Amino acid sequence: MVSMNAVLLISFLLWSVGVAGVLIRRNALVILMCVELMLNAANLNLIAFARQAGTVNGQAFALLVMGFAAAEVAVGLALVVALYRKKGNIQVDEINLLKG
Amino acid sequence: MEQLLASLGQNLFVLFGLLAVGAAGVMIFTKSAVHSVIGFLFSMLCVAGCFLALQAEFLGVAQLLVYAGGIVVLFLFVVMLVELTKYQEKGIFQTQAKFAVPLVGAGVLAFAGVFRGILFGPNAGQALVLKLGLEGATEHLGNAQAVSRGLFADFLLPFEILSVILLVALIGAIVLAKSERV
């Protein structure tokens, strides 16, 4: 038996660590990992609320979110590799092609 | 014994959750990209432990397979592919990090205030406790069967859309990452 407060607290902490990582890091790879972390915090909430409501639909939807995260990571990593080919680095503050 | 088992689930969940948060902290504050990936791997393993503590066994195993088996390996490949050493001396944090960290900290504190007021304040409701059994699930129906029933009965259209999204992502990743002279 897990109380809902613990789930909400842990998932909030995970999500805020992910937000902090997206905001402060310069490395595009770490930013992608932080996005994954935020998706996982959302998954935790989905499962907990499904368990609280007594259905499995939240778990099924969390599985869909997991597949979506895999697709997102594939495209994101391909973008990182393409950026590295083009610019020679993947530091996001040096990617300013549209700045003029 | 019942009491012990009931508190054991809660304690395991909190333990795995705090480990996941700690590993995520290591992930965003460490310097080397490989260490970041290892922190990410550990964090995902701990989240899988949280799923198991929430009695979502199938999702826990799926988390292990998808994240520890697939996504971490992808990240490691890209870390090996991309040469980062000459940018290490410029620092790992953005220039706006000194504003972003207090901002996120203030957000966390504000949310903690709201959280505390709602959950532990004078008019706090009864704390929600997660149910053990599932609606409509009988004894012989395991977690995987129950999840698949939800997935293929109620979420059939999102499931099909997800398959198309995965196909598009596959083609898009190949097009984006292939070298231009081929």
Task: Describe the SSE topology.
The complex is a heterodimer of chains A (100) and B (182).
Chain A (H helix, E strand, L loop, with lengths): L3 H21 L3 H26 L3 H31 L13
Chain B lengths: L1 H28 L3 H21 L3 H25 L15 H24 L22 H12 L1 H22 L5
Helix pairs in contact in B: 1-2, 2-3
Helical stretch count of chain A? 3
For the report, how would you describe the main beta sheet of chain B? none
The helix-strand sequence of chain A is: HHH
The CATH homologous superfamily of the domain at 1-85 in chain B corresponds to NADH-ubiquinone/plastoquinone oxidoreductase chain 6, subunit NuoJ
Mean pLDDT across residues of chain B = 82
The stretches of 5 or more residues of chain A where confidence is low (pLDDT under 50) are none
CATH class of the domain at 1-85 in chain B: Mainly Alpha
The first-to-last residue Cα distance of chain B is 66 Å
TL;DR of this structure?
The complex is a heterodimer of chains A (100) and B (182). By secondary structure, chain A is mainly α.
Overview of the molecule:
The complex is a heterodimer of chains A (100) and B (182). Helix content of chain A is 78%, strand content 0%. Chain A has three helices and no strands. Chain A has helices spanning 4-24, 28-53, 57-87. In chain A, helix 1 packs antiparallel against helix 2 and helix 2 packs antiparallel against helix 3 (57-87). By secondary structure, chain B is mostly helical. Chain B has helices spanning 2-29, 33-53, 57-81, 97-120, 143-154, 156-177. Chain B is extended. Chains A and B meet through helix 1, helix 2 and helix 3 of A and helix 1, helix 2, helix 3, helix 4 and helix 5 of B.
Q: Characteristics of this structure?
A:
heterodimer, A: mainly alpha, 3 helices, B: 182 residues, mainly alpha, Four Helix Bundle (Hemerythrin (Met), subunit A), 6 helices, extended
